[in-house]
Amino acid sequence: MTDEQTRRITDLGTLKALAHPLRSQLYRALVVARTATASQLAEQVDGAVSLVSYHLRKLADAGLIEEAPGTQRDGRERWWQPASDGVSIHEADFGDAPEKAAAHQAATRLFYEQRSELYRRYLDERSTWAPEWRAASSDSEALMPLTAAELTELTGELLAVIRKYDEQGRAAQAAGDTEGRQSVALHMYGFPFRA
Predict the structure, then answer these.
(1) Are 64 and 19 in a shared domain?
(2) Are residues 10 and 78 in the same domain?
(3) Residue closest to 87 by CA, chosen among 27, 150, 152
(4) Are 87 and 6 in contact (CB under 8 A)?
(5) What is the DSSP string of 47-78?
């Protein structure tokens, strides 16, 4: 995934479209699946197909997802895919008006809560995973004295490593190398705090 393949959300309408609890779940599920129908996604989020279809159309209206070309098997199925390899949202793009800042903060909190829930679910189910997956899973914290410029540099270097592994995994998967592959979530936060 390159920066060009990641869509930077800079407008309030698109942010609000994604920052809906069900829509952000659907978007995440679609990024993992790469293509899916409303019925398939409804099973994953335990929702009604009609409600999921409505929210998928809202994501499409915002340009976050699109119909997947060449996947329709009959006239009733509508297959969807992400419109980019991911999205990025930066506080700097929403700080020029109170409404935009509040929407950005609410979206950030929602995404954090959903990521936390994903990790809590893993912790609850950890014993059901094979030993090699339990050993490979990590939970760490680093407390470092950095400048803002150093944190920016560190984040860029870590994202480059993540992109490398994402591209390798997707290429292998596209080539049919699916043995032993699982969807993996890697959450990374870098922020200042007062001791």
Answers:
(1) yes
(2) yes
(3) 27
(4) yes
(5) --HHHHHHHHHHHHHTTSEEEPTT--SSTT--
Q: How far apart, in whole angstroms, are the C-alpha atoms of residue 36 and residue 30?
A: 7
Q: Token pair for residue 54?
A: 């409505």
Whether residues 97 and 158 fall in one domain: no
Identify whether residues 30 and 68 lie together within a single domain. yes
Range of the domain at 172: 140-195
Task: Give the predicted TM-score (pTM) of the model.
Answer: 0.87
Which among 49, 63, 82 has a CA at the least distance from the CA of 17?
A: 63
Give the CA dihedral 51, 67, 103, 116, nearest 10 degrees.
Answer: 70
Encode the chain (195 residues) as per-residue pLDDT tens digits: 344 478 999 999 999 999 999 999 999 999 999 999 999 999 999 999 999 999 999 999 999 999 998 766 666 789 999 999 889 999 999 999 999 999 999 999 999 999 999 999 999 999 999 999 999 999 999 999 999 999 999 999 999 999 999 999 999 998 999 999 999 999 988 889 888
Tokens linked to 13:
């309408």
